[in-house]
Task: structure prediction
Amino acid sequence: MVDFQDEFKTFDEKIKLTESKKASMRISRNAIKKKIINYFKDHLEITAPIFTTQGSFVINTALNPIENEEVDMDYGVYLQDQSENEEDWITPRKAHKRIIDALEGHTQDECISKTSCVRVLYRNFYHLDLPVYIMKNDKAFLAQTECNEWINSDSKEFRNWFYENRNDVKLSKMVRLIKAWRDFTKTEMTSIEITILTVNCFNNEREREDLVLYDTVANIYDEILISRKVEKPVSPFEDLWENYSEDKKDEIIEMVKQFRDDLNIALSNTSNHRGSVILREVFGERFPLKKDEENGERYSQQLRSGVKPWGV
Result:
C-alpha cells in the first residue's frame, strides 16, 4: 500500500485559501460594511445592520479556486430596524433592493439579488454573498426572494453545529479535500452538502490522513446510496436534495462511488508514481506526483494523465 500522507499535506497547502486572498477579501468586506452603515444612517436615517462573517471562510474550509473560478465569502447582514410584528416587516425583495441601493457604484462589476443573498462581484475572481436576516426572539429569519418570505434559517447555527461536532482538526482538511475533488470533477454537490456529509461520515480510526479520507468518502457513499438525501442539521432542517431529480441523485451517487474506487486503487497500488497519477485524475495537477524508488523516471515518462480506465 502506498503512503501519500506527505503528498496530501502538500496538496492541502495548495488548495487552502491563501492569506493574501483572505486579506483582500477582508478589505472588501469592511468597505461594504462601512458603505451600508453610512447608507442606513445618512440616507434612510434608520438603525444600521449588524454584520457577521459566515460560511466556509469562518470554518476554514474555503479553497483557492481552479483557474478563473471564483471564491466567495458569506457576510450576514442583520437588519435592526424592524417591528416585533412580522406583518410589518419589510419584504425580502425590498430588503435586497435596499442593500443593492446602498452599494450602488461600489464596484465596477455587478451587485445582484439572488434567491437567498445579495451578491457583490469583484474582478479579481471572488465575490461576497450578503444574506439578509431579521432577528426575532433570538431566531434569525433569512430573506428568500423567490417566495418573497422570511425563512427561519441562520448560518451562525450551522457554524456552531460544525464546531460542536468537530472532534479532530483533520475534519476541516477532509472537507477541503472533498471540495477540491468536487471542484476538479465538477460534481454537482454544494459546499454545505459536502460539509454536512463529511461531518456525519468522518472516520478517524486510522492515523494516516489519506486513509481517513478514503474511509470518510466510503462512508459518504454508503450514506447517500441508502438515504438519497442530505438533511440540514439546523433550522429549517430541510432535505437539501428534496428538489433534485432522481437522475441527478443517481449521478452524484455514481460520482462519489467513482471517487471512492479511485482512492482505493491509488492507495492500494504497488507503484508510488502510478498511485499519484491516479490521484491527479481525481484532484487535478495541483496534486504532486510521487516517484518510485526504482524506475521512477520510466514511470514518469509513461504515465501522465488521461489514463482512465486504470489499465496501467
Notes: Residues 214 and 263 are 6 Å apart (CA to CA). The first helix runs from residue 5 to 15. The chain has a mean pLDDT of 90. The first strand starts at residue 50 and ends at 54.
